[in-house]
Structures are given as C-alpha cells and as structure tokens.
Amino acid sequence: MTPGDRYTVADSSGGFGFYNLPEGDYTVTLDPKTLPEFYFPLSAAEVTVHVAIDGQTPAVQFLIEKRETQLPTRKVFQKPLPQ
C-alpha cells in the first residue's frame, strides 16, 4: 500500500486489512508474484481508496482465478481386442 510502504498478508479466507491509517488517499496493490502457483489476477491489480476519519472506507476486492494447464492426451497405440 502506498503511500507508507505498508504491506499485509491475506488470511486463509483471503481477507486482509490495514489498521490505524491517517485520513487520506491510498493505493492498494496486489503483487501477482505473491500468488500461489497457477493463480492469476482477473481484476485490476491496483485500487485507490479514500480513508476518512468519520466515514466508512470501502472494501477492496481483488479477483483471482486458478488456471491449471492440462496436458493434451492422445492415443499412441491401439491394439485390436482378441475375439
């Protein structure tokens, strides 16, 4: 998160938070290099939010997708069955 060079790690359900922030505008960035293998972002990797002392800060959500590559299959040899 900038400004401030803060970072956080998501919990097991994907939730994360930043606490005790002064009022202002912040950019929250998802670093794709920190995602598990085969996971890719589907949404923008940066979101700007305004933190207000007396207001409610909107939730930030990043959408990610698991994409496992499947190897193609083909028959190499097929022997006729005995009758």
Structure description:
The protein has 83 residues and is mainly beta. Helices cover 0% and strands 22% of the residues. It contains no helices and 4 strands. The chain has a two-stranded antiparallel ribbon. It has a two-stranded antiparallel ribbon with strand order 2-4. The radius of gyration is 22 Å and the shape is rod-shaped. The model has no long low-confidence stretch (mean pLDDT 85).
Summarize the structure.
The protein is mainly beta and 83 residues long.
Features:
single chain, 83 residues, mainly beta, two-stranded antiparallel sheet, 4 strands, rod-shaped
How much is the radius of gyration in Å?
22 Å
Spell the H/E element sequence: EEEE
* Mean pLDDT reading: 85
Low-confidence stretches: none
Q: Specify the structural class.
A: mainly beta
Strand elements, count: 4
Strand order of the largest sheet: 1-3
Largest sheet: 2 strands, antiparallel
Topology summary:
Elements: E1 24-29, E2 39-41, E3 46-51, E4 64-66
Antiparallel strand pairs: 1-3, 2-4
